[in-house]
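Q: What does the assembly look like in three dimensions?
Context provided by user:
Components: two
Sequences:
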Amino acid sequence: MDIFLQQLINGLVLGSVYALVALGYTMVYGILELINFAHGEVTMIGAMVALSVIGALVGHVALPGVVIVAMGVLVAVPVCMLLGFTIERVAYRPLRHAPRLAPLITAIGVSILLQNLAMIIWGREYVKFPPILSSATHQVAGATISDLQIFILVLSLLIMAGLVALVQKTKLGRAMRATAQAPQVAALMGVNVNSVISLTFIIGSAIAAIAGVMVAAYYGLAHYYMGFMLGLKAFTAAVLGGIGNLAGAMLGGLLLGVIESLGAGYIGDITGGFMGSNYQDVFAFFVLILVLVLRPSGLLGEQVGERA
Amino acid sequence: MDLSEALLASLLEARKLCVAYGGVKAVKRVDLDVNAGELVCLIGANGAGKTSLLKSLCGMVPASGGTVHFRGASLTHKPSHEIVRHGIALVPEGRGVFSRMTVKENLEMGAHIRHDRAAIASDLDSVFTRFPRLKERAAQKAGTLSGGEQQMLAIGRALMSRPQLLLLDEPSMGLAPLMVQKIFETIREISQQGVTILLVEQNAKLALEVSHRGYVMESGEVTLADEARALASNPEVRRAYLGE
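A: Here is the predicted structure of the complete assembly.
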């Protein structure tokens, strides 16, 4: 089996999910210059809600697994949209003109709040994703790719393409870009800046919900704490690509997934067996440190001066 | 329109308008009228409160007192994005173009509140006819334009909302003399085409030349209000603002 190709495929699949979550970080940052640290938790809530729906349906209705999962997603997406909207309204909007440290600390607070809320609702144990999806695999040049992997990759790319089209080609997208560049001037043009900000949270949260279900399906489980690491990785991806930049978030996500996956595949060889693939998280944060030291504006980000 | 006839149709009415930043009063109980078809200028030294007054008229800073009415409707305490729907467009100080968007996208943003696609397209054409430079650079990012071109873009963008009242904040600022001439010709043309204009300008000489009426502001207060010609020959104005 070709380890390189295999890890590349695994990395792209994982990376496409990172990219989806990273989009949420980067969209909010682009408009508010706020790191919404609660975004990872929105992803977790999406996974948990979908799993609750799926768990309630499995064994009770005679529907194909894909349909049951789709129904879970259809419930999780609006729940997360409402959650994202509420977080902005309750936790960030009152602090719009406060010093930048205040909303950042609030974001961490919201994140902890959501984790604990999820722990109370869904418990401390891992919630299993029932084996209702196709587990068929295909051989490609010595590597294996599963139906689920293909599905995650294709759906992620479609969502990314859809978001780019929305932002670049529609009137709403134009208003979002204008708001990100100069909110006061956008308002003069008739853009309701508060609505645009709400919509940004809503869209980012909808994508996060789908990403959460993907992660749960991919690893076969979900956990109240899963949003923390996922959020941190996606944040790293956004920084790697250049935070505030949509294309950067996508590139950063895919790259980070591949780096992590290849790293995990070869770390045993590199360290002579001293470290195993369980150290794969090291790579993401090693990348974060490198980017922050060498190119803080990220791969596609603009060089910007220090802001007061 | 005959000026005396226009005077009957008051478009904008500010009464006892105040703007304060913290404890600092930038605008103190200002009364200001702009009538339909007029070109009115507001002159005064740096820091006299001209920009604050303009910003409060279009909702960028809240009024701390007083009222603003436009065509009979109260605009006091309305947010910017609603005020533009009443027919007021601002060309902000420093132009405020969306630098990472193309020239064409900037102009389309100006028409954000409109839904009449065909009319928007024809207005886009008239902006390009008025400013051929913008047409040449339609696909270029606005941030790459020169200061004068950005000023044209900001004016064109404001016109794209089909305003009844155009507010111009220091359109000559930072521009080369030739470009200043060009911008003032444009302002005169726009006015002659029937758009009512309130012009804030430090270049008092040029402003009084193109305007029908003028207000002089000093430390947040309107100290003089008269026909532009009368102001231009007022000894006090000549000494303080026309460099004589």
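Follow-up: Chain B touches chain A at residues 58-60, 79-81, 84-85, 89-90, 92, 96, 98-101, 105, 108-110, 112-113, 157, 161 (CB under 8 Å).
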